[in-house]
Amino acid sequence: MKIDELILVSIDDHVVEPPNMFHGRIPQKWADLAPRVVTDERGVDRWMYRGKQTGVVGLNAVVSWPPEEWGLDPTGYAEMRPAVYDIDARVRDMDRNGIAVSMCFPTFAGFSAGHFNHCKDEITVAMIQAYNDWHIEDWAGAYPARFIPLAIVPTWDPEIASAEIRRVAAKGCRGVSMPELPHLEGLPSYHNLDFWGPVFQAFCDTGTVMCLHIGQGFGAIKGAPDAPIDNLIILACQVSVFAVQDLLWGPAMRTYPDLKLAWSEAGIGWIPFYLDRCDRHYTNQRWLNRDFGGRLPSEVFREHSLACYVTDPMSLGLRREIGIDIIAWECDYPHSDSFWPDAPERVLGELNAVQATDEEINKITWQNACRFFGWDPFALKSKDEMTVGALRASATDVDVSIRSRKEWAELYAERTAS
To answer: Which residues pair with 91 in a beta bridge?
Structure first.
């Protein structure tokens, strides 16, 4: 396949929410309680909610910084590339990178609304709904051909969470970010259907995908107290195995045949070993009387799952053993793991190295994701207009210069002063 013919759908990117996102979206009686950005005494922008810092402004939003500065969170919007938080600039960066469609996870709210959970009340429910409306209408809705909407829900109340899943699905939302391991937040585990059953049923009824992004479950890694941050970054995808174990060997996947689960940024390298282990355990340990309905655990996993990766050069060689129909690529913009502006070269290079066919390339780069999320990438633009070649041809003027955080801050000062 020629690089200009590629269609790239990134099923995991990130939005750094602009500071005005809640304006006009909160009931008047609670308007003063809406999350807001304040600049502290050290000049750092921080989101605050109900008197507490809520998440961060720009977690690892280092795209177009020099690599030696990676790993340092921006102190504020001034240090970030504008496409990190500005929707018009984001689409231009997607064009330059040949990305046809993107799905964006939250930043300050937490991947599964976890940063709101210190206030479990109707006010927070209103804030979460306002977040979702902003994301669906203002972020994804600004360019509806280009973004798959993703929501968050109040995970502490299954009835309210279920109602919100149904509400956002009616607005066109195709995915909801959920915790990998809810018991780490003091909630019941996914083994508890009395609690999570209504939520699973809402996902099934609406066809909405339950997205489990690495990060929420870091608490499962009880490593050495003096271990470097490398341990968390490298082992993050192993937490996904804990989540799969709870949902596969617990009742969820077997009780809800229509439940769809996306393992976001989890990679695919762990899957062959894990599924081999599951099948061996199931067939060997018959005394445990586990029932997968006449199927192997690996078969049940594949029926429910979409496995998402940024780069997995060796594991792609096992793509058929993993399941060629359950693998989807992601870009992870604007984090340090992402590829910009050369994602097409990186993606196709890895797939060519394992001699993937054109059919396999199309499945991994866009077809699997679009099928799983029920998304038509060509609803508003033709396929020819969404290729890497066409998108890049429309964005030759996009500046791809590497700039330090200081240089970005200087450009920001110039823009805001004019």
So the answer is: none
Which residues, 6 or more positions from 364, have their beta carbon under 8 angstroms from its beta carbon?
Answer: 319, 324, 327, 328, 329, 351, 356
Q: Are strands 99-105 and 150-151 parallel, antiparallel or unpaired?
A: unpaired
pLDDT for position 279: 95
Question: How confident is the model over 153-180, as pLDDT tens digits?
Answer: 999 999 999 999 999 999 999 999 999 9
- Give the CA count within 13 Å in the CB-facing half-sphere of 103: 31
Higher pLDDT, 230 or 183: 183
Q: Nearest to residue 151, comparing CAs of 102, 202, 211, 201?
A: 211
d(CA 104, CA 148): 8
- Domains in the chain (CATH in brackets) are 3-417 (3.20.20.140)
Q: Which residues contact 191 (CB under 8 A, 6 or more apart)?
A: 246, 250, 251
| Total residues found in the chain within this entry | 418
Using only C-alpha atoms, the chain has a radius of gyration, in whole angstroms, of: 21
Of 206, 151, 158, 214, residue with least CA distance to 181: 214
Contact of 307 with 214, CB cutoff 8 Å? no
pLDDT at position 224, please?
84
Region at 49 (left for phi over 0; alpha for psi -120 to 50; beta for the rest): beta
Residue type, 396: T
Answer whether residue 116 shows pLDDT above 90. no
| pLDDT of 222 | 76
63-115 tens-digit pLDDT: 999 999 987 788 999 999 999 999 999 999 999 999 999 999 999 999 888 88
pLDDT-based confidence at residue 235 (cuts at 50, 70, 90): confident
Q: Is 90 exceeded by the pLDDT of residue 387? A: yes
H or E segment at 213?
A: strand 209-213
Q: Which two tokens stand for residue 106?
A: 């939250």
Rounded Cα–Cα distance for residues 18 and 58 (Å)? 10
- DSSP letter at 364 equals I
- Amino acid sitting at position 194: D
Is the pLDDT at 189 greater than 80? The verdict is yes
CA-closest candidate to residue 298, choices 335, 269, 323, 333: 323
Residue 330 has pLDDT above 90, yes or no: yes
Distance in angstroms (rounded) separating the CA atoms of residues 270 and 1? 28
